[in-house]
Amino acid sequence: MHLDDVLTELVADSGDRLLRVAYQLTHDRGAAQDLVQDALLRVYRSVRRRGLAPEDWYAYLRRAVINEYVRTRRLRSSTEIVTDTVPERAAAGSLEDRAADQVQLWAALGELSERQRAVLVLRYYEGLADHEIAALLGCREATVRSLARRGLAAMRPLVAAASIEEGRA
Amino acid sequence: MSAFEDEMRQAMASHDDEAPRAEDLLRSLEQASPPRRWLAGWYAPLAVAAAVVVVVAGSLGGVRLLGHQAGSAASPRPAGRAVALACPAKYAGEVPWVPAKPVGVDGRSRLVPQQTPSSALICAYPGSNLANRQTGWLLSGQRSLTGNLAGLATQLSWEARRLPSQQTFCAGVGGPQTNYLIGLTYPGGGTLWVTATDSACDSASNGEFTSASGVGSDMSRAFASGRWPARQPASCGGAVDSGRLGEEKALVPPGTTSLTICASGKARTFTSGYQAVVGALDRLPAQPTKGYCSSSPAPPDPMYQLLFSYPEGPLVSVYVAVGCHPEVGGLDLQSASASTVMPIIQQLLKGK
Q1: Number of domains in chain B
Q2: What is the DSSP code (8-state) at residue B315?
Q3: Which of B96, B37, B100, B92 is CA-nearest to residue B70?
Q4: Does residue B245 fall inside a structural domain?
Q5: Where residue B192 sits, what CATH number does that domain have?
Q6: Residue B197, min C-alpha distance to chain A (Å)
Q7: Is the entire prediction scored with pTM above 0.80?
Q8: Is residue B283 in some structural domain?
């Protein structure tokens, strides 16, 4: 069985970008591929049913990937890091100085809740503005800011703990 | 932007190379491609737009990529490359059907390699064995197994091979049936699909090796729970997971750890002192099994079912029935007379 040529071209055009975003979200190659594939198939069914053709194909698929990620992860896991306090600014000379290890940052990102991670990936990896992220996630801009703030706050102790642990070893 | 945020941006970008590539996605979509009719109507405007995008962007690899993938599926995969499998959108052939033959692992000598897979994905395709169409059943769900992959490997790798002359006795009924695929990936990049159904009448297969018995009940349980089920101990009177590689060479392949003797629904298990039974069975002049024994006019008496357990993998089941013809039989071998074996079994039972 061969794919329709059009689908092949679309994947060739947007597949790598979508897979990279999915990998940022899942930190797992197989899960990233599943995510993009599921999103593609969902879009097929949706567009066929509604007869809509998106103007920006990549943005449309990216939205499907993000929504699929948030939806499925929420079903699979209730793990969410909750922070009681949300510092507006990092303590001077603490985290910015110690968080140079990108491995720890990557690992800490993987510990966040799905919505926090989605917001941070869209903001810092995809470079979207908060109002664009809000439109994509279907929430208010203030919610995006809150999720980002809480996500960053949650990462700091994780990165710090890893640094301390590494220092002991 | 703070230094922390800048570091995070760089951390994200540094992992770009680890993401799967579009060619991996194409390979999966090739297997899970939706029916062509989905693409017929609504897709035409997109086709034009996409073609423009592709030409403008200079991305010329699409169709070639597909061709490349089709070619590479049959060639050995580079060692060490992580591979992700995806469930096909439909069960596209008659049972036993798999979407691809084993790649990068041996699928000819065993149903699965004696190696714990890196991942296992189960795909379910419900249908009816009474339906006119026995192909094209649609994917209803998929599940990644998260537990006991080692148990999966040990059980499936010891499944007996189905021999060309082998007859199948099963208690299948007409009605709903679910076909399963399980996609396995291995360290080093190998991949292998196994298919099975929840019917007792269907064998499991990887496309190159077909087993003598089905593993559909285990597939069903794994699909429901997300982990491969633990091996069940030998028991009498119920379904027995038997049929072990090596039964084509010996009534009782070497390596047994215990013997359970079933008679009239009662079980006695021996973990020692039963080797004389094994020896007597293996000394019998044996021939390829041609079918279950037949008795007339009276039922066989006495009649025993012997269940031999092993450290891992399926049991070996051998019946010993005086007055039945042939009197001793296993999955692949049978022998006409139980005269030398029966006294040893009865001695063992008396001594307990």
Answers
A1: 3
A2: B
A3: B100
A4: no
A5: 3.30.350
A6: 23
A7: no
A8: yes
Q: What residues in A contact B36, CB-CB < 8 Å?
A: 4
ipTM: 0.76
Distance of CA B82 to the CA centre of its chain: 22
B171 in a structural domain? yes
Does one domain contain both B209 and B263?
Answer: no
Give yes or no for a contact between B216 and B202, defined as CB atoms under 8 angstroms apart: yes
Q: Do A152 and B4 touch (CB under 8 A)?
A: yes
Q: What is the pLDDT of residues B265-317, one digit of tens each?
A: 688 899 999 999 999 999 999 888 876 666 666 667 788 889 999 998 899 99
Question: Cβ B19–A20 below 8 Å, yes or no?
Answer: yes
Put simply, whether A110 touches B (Cβ < 8 Å) is no
Q: Chain B 121-180, CB below 8 Å of chain A: which residues?
A: 144
Residues in B touching A44 (Cβ below 8 Å): 34, 38-39
Nearest 5°: the CA angle A37, A41, A47 is 140
How far apart are alpha carbons B204 and A123 in whole angstroms? 48
Inter-chain CB proximity A1 and B92 less than 8 Å: yes
What would the two tokens of residue A70 be? 């948030």
* Domain C-terminal end among B50, B74, B98: B74
Which tens digit of pLDDT belongs to each residue from B115-147? 999 999 999 999 887 777 778 899 999 999 988
The first and second tokens of residue B41, run together, are: 């109507």
Query: Sign of the C-alpha dihedral, residues B298, B166, B260, B273?
Result: positive
Q: For every residue of B241-273, which 3-state class applies, written as one string?
A: CECECCCCCCCCCCCCCEEEEEECCEEEEECCC
Q: Which residue has the higher pLDDT, A136 or B164?
A: A136
| Residues facing residue B321 across a β-bridge | B303
Q: What kind and span of H or E run contains B137?
A: strand B137-138
The domain containing residue B52 runs over which residues?
A: 3-74
